[in-house]
Design brief:
This protein is of the alpha/beta class and 614 residues long. 36% of the residues lie in helices and 23% in strands. The chain has an eight-stranded antiparallel β-sheet with strand order 3-2-4-1-10-9-11-15, covered by helices on one side. The chain has a seven-stranded antiparallel β-sheet with strand order 5-6-7-8-12-13-14. The longest helix is centred in the C-terminal third of the chain and has 22 residues. The N and C termini lie close together (11 Å).
């Protein structure tokens, strides 16, 4: 959701910034822009509605010189997506330009006050209010820009990651963050900034993660100075990036989403590596080991997440309760943060987020921490906000996920939750050693079983063409497969724009059965474990009403296949591990239906990869 890239150095900034914007396209956006201090010391701003390629075309014959610049992809919050509301935004004198991720919640009263002081506005954005406020403070207090930014940020309410360049100081960039991520890359004779590592990794592997309410002055001659909003200076910690440029390429696949679906066997191996000890039949999670008494004595576990991560959390609830016998509640982070939940100091709150920057989940962490709960994070991005805000946790280690619709992050989150459940159960002695060891052995086989399912790709591709006409889908599952039905429906909605709903199969008779007719595809996850006879009965009820049934079945099944219009087989596994296999054909089905409908699979409309605002 929105992307930031900036450069200060001796190279031409434009090419670095444009390439960075392309790297950030995965985040979701509806306009793009760039600001440069040109070689003749003009501050120029170019911006367009639509894709980054539109910006490139717009600037083809314009002055693109300069060694310092900032660039932005915007996901509209305040004001419709258009050229005027796109970032960067000028100050009133056009001496300053600013880009911003986040939301300034008190922009309206600030705007009214500035209008009363004679300021005029050209956009509908909260961002323009911020740059106008900064310039007003600079003028009225006769202070330098760094001080003006500090004063302005002490006056605003909300979240921000900002970068500012100043025509009157062409070698300096000022950046700051609160509630929205920002990193600074350290080059040989230059500096880079980004909302994440993707636009930076090509140039340096040394980065500083700006902390909450920190502000940095970047100057090529003076170097880097970081303070907080109270002007207390800090010595930055330089971190080493653990991604490489090849992970950001499609590697011959048509889309990042398809690449990431096919990466899942390897990504799961990376998630399990060093944690699943087959030779000694152990599960070693340092986040559990270092806090084992808290998990042994936990009153309950609360899992907070959004979207796909929430579906993973539901499956986590089932397996933790079954194996470890600890009650688990699963909460939408966006709801949890706005009510007054009962949280005990012996509760454990698990926060799940692919990006580690999900605004609602971060807010849920802050709330839970204020109540004294122990916080455990599960995320993919090293150095992101959630790992820094939680007491302990586990990285999923799947590498960058570029496609907006999550695939490999989901299965990695499931694998991590399986490891957590097994580890807690073993420590609490709530399952036998024999059962524990059998599950450890079986979990090791899952990557190979996913490889077997991926061989269905061409079959699913050909089958998917049938459904370009469809306007609705229903997905049904029971037990562990009910959250998979939710996830399958979400994937289809996200990338094909076909309306789809997931239900517990037993709930079909409580309303959704009214929708069944010969034109409604019904996807049923009907593996042999877990209420098999009941799901067969559900399918019979659908067929009696001429519904079109697509089933996911255990390899060798004949009963469900014989009453389905079409079936996909998956290998047999333990009941608790079925979701990690049954979701694979649903990911492929959604992908191929979307491509058959010529959808933008990697960047579906209105969606953002990292939801850093409410």
């Amino acid at each position: 959701m929105c992307g930031i890239v900036g450069y200060v150095g001796k190279r031409d900034a434009y090419e670095i910034l444009i390439k960075g914007l392309h790297r950030l396209e995965y985040r979701g956006y509806d306009s793009a822009g760039i600001a440069l201090i040109s070689d003749n010391n003009d501050l120029v701003v170019y911006k367009t509605k639509g894709k980054v390629i539109n910006l490139e075309n717009h600037t083809a014959d314009l002055n693109r010189s300069g060694k310092i610049g900032i660039a932005h992809t915007r996901w509209a919050t305040h004001g419709e997506p258009n050229d005027i509301n796109a970032h960067p935004h000028f100050s009133g004198s056009k001496s300053l330009a600013l880009i911003h991720n986040g939301i300034i919640e008190n922009y309206k009263p600030l705007k009214e006050e500035l209008i009363a002081q004679g300021k005029t506005f050209v956009s509908d954005t909260d961002t323009e209010v911020l740059i106008q406020l900064i310039e007003y403070i600079q003028e009225s207090h006769n202070c330098d820009l760094f001080t003006a930014v500090q004063m302005a940020l002490n006056s605003v309410v909300g979240a921000y990651a900002i970068a500012i360049i100043n025509k009157n100081d062409p070698e300096t960039m000022i950046v700051a963050r609160k509630g929205s991520p920002l990193i600074i890359g350290i080059g040989e004779d230059d500096f880079f900034i980004g909302s994440d590592a993707t636009p930076i990794v090509e140039y340096t592997d040394k980065v500083i993660y700006l902390e909450e309410e920190q502000i940095a002055k970047i100057n090529l001659k003076e170097g880097l100075k970081i303070t907080d909003l109270k002007n207390i200076e800090t010595t930055p910690i330089i971190n080493k990036l653990n991604i490489n440029i090849s992970q950001l390429e499609k590697a011959g696949y048509e889309h990042f989403m398809l690449k990431e679906i096919f990466e899942q066997p390897e990504s799961l191996i990376n998630t399990l590596k060093g944690r699943l000890k087959i030779d000694t039949k152990e599960v070693k999670l340092s986040g559990i080991i270092d806090n084992v008494e808290k998990f042994r004595k936990a009153r309950r576990i609360i899992i907070c997440a959004c979207g796909t991560s929430w579906h993973a959390a539901l499956i986590g609830k089932y397996i933790i309760e079954e194996l470890a016998r600890i009650p688990v509640e699963v909460e939408y982070s966006s709801e949890f943060r706005y009510r007054n939940p009962i949280i005990y100091d012996d509760d454990i709150v698990i926060a799940i987020s692919q990006s580690g920057e999900t605004a609602d989940t971060l807010a849920a962490i802050v709330l839970a921490k204020s109540k004294g709960a122990f916080l455990f994070g599960i995320c993919n991005v090293v150095g992101s906000s959630i790992p820094r805000a939680t007491h302990s946790g586990a990285y999923t280690h799947v590498g960058p996920e570029i496609g907006v619709a999550s695939t490999k992050a989901f299965t990695a989150q499931l694998s991590t939750l399986f490891l957590i459940a097994l580890s807690i159960a073993h420590e609490r002695k709530t399952i036998s050693n024999e059962y524990f060891e059998s599950l450890v052995d079986e979990l090791q086989t899952i990557p190979d079983k996913i490889r077997e399912i991926l061989k269905l790709n061409e079959q699913i591709k050909n089958f998917a063409k049938t459904f370009t006409y469809a306007k609705n889908f229903i997905y049904l599952g029971r037990g562990y497969n009910y959250p998979v039905a939710l996830e399958g429906a979400l994937k289809l909605k996200e990338i094909s724009y076909i309306h789809a709903e997931g239900y517990p199969a037993a709930e079909m008779k409580h309303g959704p059965i009214a929708l069944i007719d010969e034109e409604l595809p019904v996807v049923v996850i009907a593996t042999k474990n877990g209420n098999y006879d009941k799901i067969v009965s559900n399918i019979e009820e659908i067929k009696a009403r001429k519904g079109y049934v697509i089933s996911i079945v255990t390899k060798g099944d004949t009963q469900v296949k014989n009453i389905s219009n079409f079936s996909f087989e998956i290998p047999d596994t333990a009941d608790c591990f079925v979701p990690i296999l049954s979701v694979i054909p649903l990911q492929l089905l959604s992908y191929h239906i979307a491509t058959a409908k010529n959808r933008d699979v990697d960047q579906p409309r209105n969606l953002a990869k990292s939801v850093t605002v409410e």
